[in-house]
Amino acid sequence: MFKQISKAAIILITFTIFLGIVYPLAVTGISMLLFPTQAGGSLIYKDGQAVGSSLIGQNFSDPKYFHGRPSAAGAEGYDATSSSGSNLGPTNKKLIDSVAERVKTVRSDNDLRADALIPADLVTASGSGLDPHISPTSALLQAGRVARARNLPEKQVRNLIEDNIENRELGFLGEPRVNVLKLNFALDALTMP
What we know:
Elements: H1 2-34, H2 36-39, E1 43-46, E2 49-53, H3 93-109, E3 133-134, H4 136-150, H5 154-163, E4 165-166, E5 177-179, H6 180-191
Antiparallel strand pairs: 1-2, 3-5, 4-5
Helix pairs in contact: 4-5
Protein backbone atom coordinates (compact mmCIF):
# COMPACT_ATOMS: atom_id res chain seq x y z
CA MET A 1 0.00 0.00 0.00
CA PHE A 2 2.84 2.41 0.89
CA LYS A 3 4.45 1.65 -2.49
CA GLN A 4 1.30 2.68 -4.38
CA ILE A 5 0.88 5.86 -2.36
CA SER A 6 4.51 6.84 -2.92
CA LYS A 7 4.19 6.22 -6.70
CA ALA A 8 1.02 8.31 -6.80
CA ALA A 9 2.72 11.10 -4.82
CA ILE A 10 5.72 11.08 -7.19
CA ILE A 11 3.43 11.27 -10.22
CA LEU A 12 1.41 14.08 -8.60
CA ILE A 13 4.54 16.09 -7.79
CA THR A 14 6.04 15.47 -11.25
CA PHE A 15 2.89 16.57 -13.08
CA THR A 16 2.42 19.55 -10.75
CA ILE A 17 5.95 20.76 -11.43
CA PHE A 18 5.74 20.13 -15.17
CA LEU A 19 2.18 21.30 -15.88
CA GLY A 20 1.96 23.91 -13.12
CA ILE A 21 5.38 25.53 -13.43
CA VAL A 22 7.58 24.39 -16.35
CA TYR A 23 4.93 24.38 -19.11
CA PRO A 24 3.34 27.78 -18.22
CA LEU A 25 6.77 29.41 -17.93
CA ALA A 26 7.87 27.93 -21.27
CA VAL A 27 4.71 29.08 -23.07
CA THR A 28 4.96 32.54 -21.48
CA GLY A 29 8.64 32.81 -22.39
CA ILE A 30 8.07 31.75 -25.99
CA SER A 31 5.12 34.12 -26.39
CA MET A 32 7.09 37.03 -24.93
CA LEU A 33 9.92 36.26 -27.31
CA LEU A 34 7.80 35.89 -30.45
CA PHE A 35 4.91 38.27 -29.66
CA PRO A 36 6.13 40.74 -26.99
CA THR A 37 3.37 43.32 -27.50
CA GLN A 38 0.52 40.81 -27.41
CA ALA A 39 2.02 38.85 -24.49
CA GLY A 40 2.31 42.11 -22.58
CA GLY A 41 -1.40 42.84 -22.97
CA SER A 42 -1.20 45.04 -26.10
CA LEU A 43 -0.92 48.08 -23.85
CA ILE A 44 -1.18 51.60 -25.21
CA TYR A 45 0.99 54.27 -23.60
CA LYS A 46 0.55 58.00 -23.35
CA ASP A 47 3.40 60.07 -21.93
CA GLY A 48 5.11 56.88 -20.73
CA GLN A 49 2.05 55.73 -18.76
CA ALA A 50 -0.13 52.75 -19.72
CA VAL A 51 -3.63 54.10 -20.33
CA GLY A 52 -5.35 51.09 -21.84
CA SER A 53 -5.12 48.05 -24.02
CA SER A 54 -5.94 47.83 -27.69
CA LEU A 55 -7.78 44.59 -26.82
CA ILE A 56 -10.21 45.99 -24.22
CA GLY A 57 -12.89 48.59 -24.86
CA GLN A 58 -13.24 51.67 -22.70
CA ASN A 59 -16.11 53.98 -21.92
CA PHE A 60 -15.85 57.25 -23.83
CA SER A 61 -18.80 59.57 -23.25
CA ASP A 62 -17.32 63.01 -23.93
CA PRO A 63 -18.67 64.45 -27.21
CA LYS A 64 -15.13 65.20 -28.42
CA TYR A 65 -14.33 61.48 -28.47
CA PHE A 66 -15.62 58.59 -30.54
CA HIS A 67 -17.86 56.27 -28.54
CA GLY A 68 -17.43 52.51 -28.65
CA ARG A 69 -19.82 49.62 -28.25
CA PRO A 70 -21.98 49.48 -25.14
CA SER A 71 -20.73 47.06 -22.52
CA ALA A 72 -22.53 44.48 -20.40
CA ALA A 73 -19.34 43.56 -18.49
CA GLY A 74 -19.83 44.36 -14.81
CA ALA A 75 -22.36 46.62 -13.13
CA GLU A 76 -21.09 49.79 -14.79
CA GLY A 77 -19.79 48.15 -17.99
CA TYR A 78 -16.25 47.89 -19.35
CA ASP A 79 -15.12 45.86 -16.32
CA ALA A 80 -12.31 43.62 -17.60
CA THR A 81 -12.64 41.38 -14.54
CA SER A 82 -16.28 40.63 -15.41
CA SER A 83 -16.11 39.94 -19.12
CA SER A 84 -19.48 38.72 -20.33
CA GLY A 85 -22.46 39.56 -22.44
CA SER A 86 -25.88 40.35 -21.05
CA ASN A 87 -27.25 36.89 -21.96
CA LEU A 88 -30.56 38.55 -22.80
CA GLY A 89 -32.43 37.02 -25.73
CA PRO A 90 -33.69 39.05 -28.70
CA THR A 91 -37.26 39.06 -27.36
CA ASN A 92 -36.29 40.09 -23.82
CA LYS A 93 -38.10 43.32 -22.87
CA LYS A 94 -35.10 44.65 -20.92
CA LEU A 95 -32.83 44.23 -23.98
CA ILE A 96 -35.40 45.75 -26.35
CA ASP A 97 -35.88 48.75 -24.05
CA SER A 98 -32.15 49.32 -23.53
CA VAL A 99 -31.43 49.12 -27.27
CA ALA A 100 -34.30 51.53 -28.00
CA GLU A 101 -32.89 53.94 -25.40
CA ARG A 102 -29.39 53.66 -26.88
CA VAL A 103 -30.77 54.35 -30.37
CA LYS A 104 -32.40 57.56 -29.05
CA THR A 105 -29.16 58.57 -27.35
CA VAL A 106 -27.04 57.97 -30.48
CA ARG A 107 -29.50 59.95 -32.62
CA SER A 108 -29.61 62.79 -30.09
CA ASP A 109 -25.84 62.93 -29.46
CA ASN A 110 -25.06 62.96 -33.18
CA ASP A 111 -27.91 65.25 -34.34
CA LEU A 112 -29.44 62.57 -36.55
CA ARG A 113 -32.95 62.46 -37.97
CA ALA A 114 -35.52 60.36 -36.10
CA ASP A 115 -35.57 57.84 -38.95
CA ALA A 116 -31.76 57.59 -39.38
CA LEU A 117 -30.47 54.03 -39.37
CA ILE A 118 -28.09 53.27 -36.51
CA PRO A 119 -25.45 50.53 -36.86
CA ALA A 120 -26.09 47.63 -34.50
CA ASP A 121 -22.62 47.81 -32.97
CA LEU A 122 -23.38 51.25 -31.47
CA VAL A 123 -26.42 49.98 -29.57
CA THR A 124 -25.68 46.34 -28.71
CA ALA A 125 -22.95 44.92 -26.51
CA SER A 126 -20.54 42.30 -27.79
CA GLY A 127 -20.36 38.78 -26.38
CA SER A 128 -17.45 39.74 -24.12
CA GLY A 129 -18.78 43.18 -23.28
CA LEU A 130 -15.27 44.51 -23.93
CA ASP A 131 -14.97 44.78 -27.72
CA PRO A 132 -12.56 47.64 -28.47
CA HIS A 133 -13.71 48.01 -32.09
CA ILE A 134 -16.58 49.56 -33.96
CA SER A 135 -17.41 49.36 -37.63
CA PRO A 136 -16.15 52.10 -39.96
CA THR A 137 -19.82 53.02 -40.51
CA SER A 138 -20.26 53.60 -36.77
CA ALA A 139 -17.14 55.77 -36.63
CA LEU A 140 -18.18 57.80 -39.68
CA LEU A 141 -21.64 58.34 -38.17
CA GLN A 142 -19.95 60.10 -35.22
CA ALA A 143 -17.56 62.20 -37.32
CA GLY A 144 -19.81 65.27 -37.41
CA ARG A 145 -20.25 65.40 -33.62
CA VAL A 146 -16.53 64.93 -32.96
CA ALA A 147 -15.60 67.55 -35.57
CA ARG A 148 -18.02 70.10 -34.06
CA ALA A 149 -16.84 69.38 -30.50
CA ARG A 150 -13.20 69.91 -31.52
CA ASN A 151 -13.74 72.73 -34.04
CA LEU A 152 -12.22 70.66 -36.81
CA PRO A 153 -13.32 70.27 -40.42
CA GLU A 154 -15.45 67.13 -40.70
CA LYS A 155 -13.41 66.06 -43.74
CA GLN A 156 -10.27 65.97 -41.57
CA VAL A 157 -12.00 63.78 -38.97
CA ARG A 158 -13.32 61.47 -41.71
CA ASN A 159 -9.80 61.16 -43.14
CA LEU A 160 -8.51 60.23 -39.67
CA ILE A 161 -11.14 57.49 -39.47
CA GLU A 162 -10.13 56.17 -42.89
CA ASP A 163 -6.47 56.13 -41.78
CA ASN A 164 -7.38 54.06 -38.70
CA ILE A 165 -9.46 51.34 -40.36
CA GLU A 166 -7.99 47.91 -39.63
CA ASN A 167 -8.52 45.43 -42.45
CA ARG A 168 -9.65 41.82 -42.20
CA GLU A 169 -7.21 39.40 -40.61
CA LEU A 170 -5.29 37.50 -43.31
CA GLY A 171 -7.42 39.34 -45.85
CA PHE A 172 -10.59 37.30 -45.27
CA LEU A 173 -11.26 36.82 -41.53
CA GLY A 174 -13.66 39.21 -39.81
CA GLU A 175 -14.73 42.62 -41.00
CA PRO A 176 -12.94 45.94 -41.38
CA ARG A 177 -13.00 47.73 -38.03
CA VAL A 178 -11.77 50.75 -36.11
CA ASN A 179 -10.13 50.52 -32.68
CA VAL A 180 -11.85 53.27 -30.67
CA LEU A 181 -9.00 53.84 -28.19
CA LYS A 182 -6.39 54.14 -30.95
CA LEU A 183 -8.68 56.43 -32.97
CA ASN A 184 -9.26 58.69 -29.97
CA PHE A 185 -5.52 58.88 -29.29
CA ALA A 186 -4.90 59.75 -32.94
CA LEU A 187 -7.56 62.43 -32.58
CA ASP A 188 -5.86 63.86 -29.47
CA ALA A 189 -2.51 63.86 -31.29
CA LEU A 190 -4.12 65.71 -34.18
CA THR A 191 -5.54 68.47 -32.00
CA MET A 192 -2.68 68.86 -29.51
CA PRO A 193 -0.63 72.05 -29.90
